[in-house]
Write a structure and sequence with these properties.
alpha+beta; 2 helices; 5 strands; 23% strand
Length: 120
């Protein structure tokens, strides 16, 4: 897919926020059930192995929906979503991190997450 403008990436993120919120919820539920099934943690009202398999399938679906937009899912816990872009002729990734409610960061391709800066 092509590059996003800042406005396009912000609009896409707004459309994706319900998907990202659901992914966070399902991820937590799957972690709880995994702990119950693999480590004998306290029983959960979430169910058992069939429900865990359903959650894993839902996570796959949600991650696919994110990637189909042209955004890049870079992290799962915490979620990290990058939108390929160009700022003043420099290839960058517009960067959203779980907990952010807006797209306000970017980093150059060659610097990665440690080079993250606020959008001008």
């Amino acid at each position: 897919m092509g590059l996003f403008t800042v406005d396009e990436a912000r609009a896409e993120l707004a459309r994706l926020l319900p998907v990202l919120d659901e992914l966070i919820t399902v991820r937590a539920d799957a972690a709880e059930l995994t702990a119950v099934l693999e480590h004998g943690a306290a029983p959960s009202d979430l169910g058992g192995l069939p429900e865990l398999k359903g959650m894993q399938a839902r996570l796959d679906d949600l991650m696919t929906r994110i990637q189909q937009t042209g955004a890049e899912l870079k992290g799962f816990a915490p979620l990290l979503v990058d939108f390929p872009a160009d700022l003043d002729g420099v290839p960058v990734l517009l960067c959203w991190l779980e907990g952010d409610r807006e797209l306000g960061w970017y980093h150059r391709l060659d610097l990665g997450f440690p080079g993250r800066r606020r959008l001008p």
